[in-house]
Specification:
The chain is an alpha/beta fold. The protein folds into 3 domains: 6-17 and 203-300, 4-hydroxy-3-methylbut-2-enyl diphosphate reductase, catalytic domain (Cobalt-precorrin-4 Transmethylase, domain 1); 19-102, 3-Layer(aba) Sandwich (Rossmann fold), CATH 3.40.50; 105-189, 4-hydroxy-3-methylbut-2-enyl diphosphate reductase, catalytic domain (Cobalt-precorrin-4 Transmethylase, domain 1). Helices cover 37% and strands 19% of the residues. The chain has 11 helices and 12 strands. The chain has a 5-stranded parallel beta sheet, with helices on both faces. Strands 3-2-4-5 form a 4-stranded parallel beta sheet, sandwiched between helices. Strand 4, helix 3 and strand 5 (98-100) form a beta-alpha-beta unit. The radius of gyration is 21 Å and the shape is flat.
């Protein structure tokens, strides 16, 4: 039997589930315990097929809009990304029993935008068009009250009167570096613009980007485990590319890895987006172990202890 080539693997820490994702999944699991199946969830509870499929197997029905949920007592849960106010109003008009699993850090951005609006400011949202979190944030205020920008070029094209009061908020899962540049451009153009009291980019996004940036200095290739529609996972791949890795790939699971790309590679870093469960990382490690003589080490750049409690309705009620 030929000897396996040696491969150094750096496991980034922190990686994988953040507190908001843990809370969202716990909300669905608790609702199943209390109410039994079916439980309805509008959109993917988090952006990960493995998580979604495992919940489907337990009796969760994923829907696109609340009008797909039948009338009755079966709960309808809103995903971690948050929803527009019109969705809440539609559900209320239909008499649906709703549970909000919006990440508290996303709710913080919603409240910031609402406060700025009440103070007469035009709100500028830094984010990606069509992302569910952005759709939800835009939907907190009347049409036209929020202006979306994604790039420095978008900022340069803005035209507001000199006396217009402005404020900005950001999507929580953006690239830390990209957002820094867009914020700098906003402040150059509009020196009086109001900034958030605390950075809107979530702690988990920042921590995972810092870890992969550091690991990328020591390897030739990076694997990010996560879904293609996961913003924070895509940003991790981009961070690795910018750090100089010649191979930086985002894969949903081990089956999607093109093993030929790692021929001749001596060192690989592995991380996972904030909605990717650890079992998927373990399977990627198993895949490498089948093909390489691996030496695994962990690079820990930050310890995380954040915890978000369940919504009060799920904490106070007793299981059926």
């Amino acid at each position: 039997m030929p000897l396996k080539p040696k491969l150094r693997i750096i496991l980034c820490a922190p990686r994988g589930f953040c507190a908001g994702v843990v809370r969202a999944i716990d909300v669905v699991e608790r609702a199943l315990q209390m109410h039994g199946a079916p439980v309805y969830v509008r959109h993917e509870i988090v952006h990960n097929k493995y998580v979604v499929d495992s919940l489907k197997a337990k009796g969760v029905v994923f829907i696109q809009e609340v009008n797909e949920a039948p009338p009755g007592d079966a709960p309808v849960i809103f995903s971690a990304h948050g929803v527009a106010k019109s969705v809440l109003e539609d559900a209320a008009n239909r008499g649906l029993h709703t549970i909000d699993a919006t990440c508290p850090l996303v709710t913080k951005v919603h409240r910031e935008a609402q406060v700025h609006f009440k103070k007469g400011r035009q709100v500028i949202l830094i984010g990606h068009l069509h992302h569910p979190e952005v759709v939800g944030t835009l939907g907190q205020l009347p049409e036209g009250a929020v202006t979306l920008v994604s790039t420095i070029e978008d900022v340069e094209s803005l035209s507001f009167p000199e006396d217009r009061e402005l404020a900005y908020v950001t999507q929580t899962t953006l690239s830390v570096d990209d957002t820094r540049d867009v914020v700098a451009a906003l402040k150059r153009r509009f020196p009086r613009i109001q900034a958030p009291q605390l950075d809107d980019i979530c702690y988990a996004t920042t921590n995972r980007q810092e870890a992969i940036k550091q690991a990328a200095q020591e390897v030739e290739a990076v694997i990010v485990v996560g879904a293609a529609n996961s913003s924070n996972s895509q940003r991790l791949r981009e961070v690795a590319e910018r750090a100089g890795c010649r191979i930086a790939v985002l894969v949903p699971d081990v089956s999607a890895i093109d093993w030929r790309a790692f021929e001749g590679v001596n060192a690989v870093a592995i991380t996972a987006g904030a909605s990717a469960p650890e079992i998927l990382v373990e399977k990627v490690l198993d895949g490498f172990a089948e093909r390489f003589d691996i030496a695994v080490e962990t690079l820990t750049t930050r310890e995380e202890s954040m915890f978000f409690p369940l919504p009060r309705s799920l904490r106070e009620a007793s299981p059926v």
